[in-house]
Amino acid sequence: MKKVIVTGSSRGIGLAIALAFGRAGFQVFATMRNPAKAIELSEIVSAESLPVTLHKMDVNSDISVKSFMDEIIIQNGSIDILVNNAGIGLTGSIEEMPISDFRSVFETNLFGAVRCIQAVTPSMRAQKSGCIINITSVSGRLTSSPLGCYSASKFALEAISEALAQELKPFNIRVGVIEPGIIDTDMAHEIEGASSSLYPTSKRMSDLFFASLKTPTSASLVAEKVLEFAAGDSWTLRHPVGPDALPFIQWRMSMTDEEWIDRQSVSDEEWYDAVERDFGMDARR
Fold first, then answer.
1. Max alpha carbon distance in the chain (Å)?
2. How do strand 52-56 and strand 81-84 relate by DSSP bridges?
């Protein structure tokens, strides 16, 4: 039975990933800061008798990550798959967002993933096999206010993943980047409601999320892609997930940097018209 560590498993995409692996017969170590709050996951695991155990691990802590990873590897041998899912999505314009929030986002979204990668890589390298999957976002390929900080952390994780894939391929360790679009999670609903700002772009993004979530995309879709990559033999690095993921990326790639900046800087009316024209989505609330 292959062994999987999934970070940030208490809710949303992480919960769906842990369940997908468990239902597929993997031994899953589902980690989170506070297992007592993972009531839904615990109940499903118990009801379905899944090979999933809940563990406390804070990806923001060197000590927490090292102690947990060392214990799991000593007790169970090398981990076959690591899924770095833990993340936070604080929003705000560059001017208005406190530096402490910038640090918090990077601490979890980037450094948390790197801590876990460094903890499992030696044993994977020794056995010359393994799989590391980093959950980034479409926002790791393009950015719009008020997601500047969040996007920066995901851009950074994409860069780390690309370098990591080069380093680990000679050791037969696959690296995959999963890039969800707008998924029906608590984080997405928090962005949907985050429109208080000096900058009108914040309300626009909130409205875009609101419109998208009218026809929600389940976190299980992301989990299916993660499981597909982990169980397969693909060396493809990037995997957009969700009906809007690739269209968003292609939208950005169709423009120069200057055209993209201009598109995001137009009047409200022009911006909403462009979204409706390009995506068939009326984002006006």
1. 59
2. unpaired
Within 10 Å of residue 43's Cβ, how many Cβ atoms?
A: 10
Burial-class residue 250 by CB neighbours within 10 Å (0-12, 13-18, 19+). exposed
CB 234 within 8 A of CB 131: no
- Closest residue by Cα to residue 27 from 45, 54, 2, 57: 2
Query: CATH: 2.40.50.100, 1.10.510.10, 3.50.50.60, 3.40.50.720. Which one for 3-199+218-244?
Result: 3.40.50.720
| 146 prior amide bond cis, ω within 30 | yes
Tens digit of pLDDT for each residue in 177-217?
999 999 999 888 887 666 677 887 888 888 999 899 999 99
Sign, CA torsion 30/79/119/141: negative
Residues in the chain: 285
Provide the annotated active-site residues.
Answer: 150
163, 204 contact by CB (below 8 A): no
First to last CA, the chain: 49
Degrees to nearest 5, angle at CA 4 with 227 and 127 = 110
Q: Round to whole Å and give the CA distance between 285 and 268.
A: 12
Which one-letter amino acid corresponds to residue 272? Y
* Tokens 């952390």 found at: 153
- Residue type present at position 242: G
User: Is beta strand 238-241 parallel, antiparallel or unpaired with respect to 81-84?
Assistant: unpaired
**For the whole prediction, is pTM greater than 0.90?**
yes
